[in-house]
């Protein structure tokens, strides 16, 4: 038997993405965005409304970065979601994290987050089925601490995922299979 739930945003896990931009004065702004995904291999889609300071900054600068939040910085990641850049100008400074300029776009890289996608702003979509920022990934960097033999080791990233059912965060750490290989066992 199945139980009917009073929820519509039931996809789990949802990534915890840190979207970083520069404000007008050059200071760093970061927001927590669980509503984001890869639209194509090199295209990011973020479901964000135009009222977000981050969206205003993206449109003004034509760029943003998307970092994967990790368990070690869960408190800071959550803070970036509960505090508005429209209300608190020094939101990033309050976090205690540090940033450096991205190599390929006019946006900051949050140094403490292990993986960062540098994105060029393509367009803002707003229609009856949602709204959001579309960006082209032009560079991806990873901290050396999460690399093994030149590749990212996701067990070292300790990425966190958002649980929309209970509003919790969970670590994504253990590899359980081989994509595009394990299912071949069932092919005839």
Describe this structure in words.
This protein has four helices and 14 strands. It is mainly β. The chain has a single domain (15-186), classed as Roll (Pnp Oxidase, Chain A), CATH 2.30.110.10. The chain has a seven-stranded antiparallel beta sheet with strand order 3-2-6-9-10-5-4. The chain has a three-stranded antiparallel beta sheet with strand order 1-13-14. It has a two-stranded antiparallel ribbon with strand order 7-8. It is globular and about 60 Å long. The protein starts with 13 loop residues before the first strand and ends in a 16-residue tail after the last strand. This is Flavin reductase family protein. Residues 9-149 form the Flavin reductase like domain. Pfam families: Flavin_Reduct.
Descriptive tags:
single chain, 188 residues, mainly beta, Pnp Oxidase, Chain A
Task: Summarize this entry quickly.
Belongs to the flavoredoxin family. This protein has 188 residues and is mostly beta strands. It has helices at residues 53-61, 74-82, 91-95, 154-157, and strands at residues 14-15, 17-22, 28-33, 36-40, 43-46, 63-68, 99-101, 108-110, 115-127, 130-142, 147-148, 151-152, 159-163, 168-172.
What's the CATH class, please? Mainly Beta
CATH topology: Pnp Oxidase, Chain A
- Low-pLDDT ranges: none
The count of strands amounts to: 14
Instruction: Name the beta content range.
Output: 35-45%
Question: What is the radius of gyration computed over CA atoms, rounded to a whole number of angstroms?
Answer: 17 Å
The CATH fourth-level homologous superfamily: Electron Transport, Fmn-binding Protein, Chain A
InterPro entries: Flavin_Rdtase-like_dom, Flavoredoxin, Split_barrel_FMN-bd
Protein name: Flavin reductase family protein
Cofactor: FMN
GO molecular function: FMN binding; oxidoreductase activity, acting on the CH-NH group of donors, NAD or NADP as acceptor
């Amino acid at each position: 038997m199945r139980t009917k739930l009073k929820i519509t945003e039931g996809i789990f896990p949802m990534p915890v993405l840190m979207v970083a931009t520069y404000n007008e004065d050059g200071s760093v702004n970061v927001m927590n965005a669980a509503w984001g995904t890869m639209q194509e291999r090199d295209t990011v889609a973020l479901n964000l409304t135009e009222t977000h300071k981050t969206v205003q900054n993206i449109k003004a600068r034509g760029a943003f970065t998307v970092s994967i939040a990790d368990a070690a910085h869960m408190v800071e990641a959550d803070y970036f979601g509960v505090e508005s850049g429209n209300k608190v100008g020094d939101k990033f400074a309050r976090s205690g994290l540090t940033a450096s300029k991205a190599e390929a776009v006019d946006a900051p890289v949050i140094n403490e987050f292990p993986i960062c996608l540098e994105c060029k702003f393509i367009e803002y979509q707003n229609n009856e089925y949602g709204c959001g920022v579309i960006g082209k990934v032009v560079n991806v960097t990873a901290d050396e601490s999460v690399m093994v033999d030149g590749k990212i080791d996701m067990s070292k990233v300790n990425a966190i995922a958002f649980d929309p059912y209970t509003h919790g965060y969970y670590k994504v750490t253990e590899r359980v299979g081989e994509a595009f290989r394990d299912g071949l066992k069932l092919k005839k």
